[in-house]
Amino acid sequence: MTREGLPLDSIQEIRARLVRIAESPSADLAEGALLVAAEENPALAFADSLDFVDGIAASAAARLCSDADPAAARSALVDEIFVRRGFEGAADDYDDPRNSFLDQVIVRRRGIPITLSILYVAAAARIGQRAFGVNAPGHFLVRHGEALIDAFTGGREVSAEDFTRRLRAAGVEDVGSTAALLLAHPPGHREILSRVLRNLKAIHLRRREMERALADVDRLVLLNPDQPHWLRDRAALYQHLGCTHAAIADLERFCERAPGDPERAVVRRALAQLVRNAPAVH
Q1: How is domain 11-184 classified at the architecture level of CATH?
Q2: Is the Cβ–Cβ distance between 115 and 107 less than 8 Å?
Q3: Residue ranges for the chain with pLDDT beneath 50
Q4: What's the number of CA atoms in the CB half-sphere (13 Å) around residue 214?
Q5: Sign of CA dihedral 67, 70, 71, 76
Q6: Are 54 and 123 in contact (CB under 8 A)?
Q7: Is the CB of residue 125 less than 8 Å from the CB of residue 28?
């Protein structure tokens, strides 16, 4: 597995690599998750973290024959990650940002559903197994072969009935169609890494850490150029932080890129008021 140019020296380089991984289905999802963490921890030990994921895969593979089926591989990976290595869901400190940073998940053996799922999917890829994320509302899952597993609860298998109950509890109306759609269209790297960033944004906003939330939305804008609502969200953070001209620029771009958005008229009024009250640039 290629690991180009590690370690990274700047935020620009980190973000450029993050975009490349988001755009490549064959890229290492674990490396993408580490790139999300790297802005918070510039001294992050990429090689050590990736070697750890390699070690999980090697230990699981050592207990499998060369043509192991997904069920056998799933059993070996669940045993290696959740039993032997002791990874578990961070139920009592769910909102700790460290649970969203894969390097800290590896060190602490604790994470939230999506980071523990990323660890599983990345280890599975290293032994030639195709495991996929399931972008279920509220609680990210993994599909490996015919089974759904919940990495947050120690790799427990999720039955079809349990899956539909979870969707219903999340407020989904057409449970059958939604379940089929989620299973038929697994999220790619871009969507998974964006979900990590959305989680971090929500955590940082609840903690009133606005500059960190802004960094999260910066990357969501970068990863999702076809989703102009992130420009609107970033403008709100810029405005909160007193960066009026940056907020104006983002709202102008939002109005250009989302002519049919139902909130466009409201945004245009807010934009006009910002322009009227903006401090002069000298």
Answers
A1: Roll (3.10)
A2: no
A3: 1-2, 5
A4: 15
A5: positive
A6: no
A7: yes
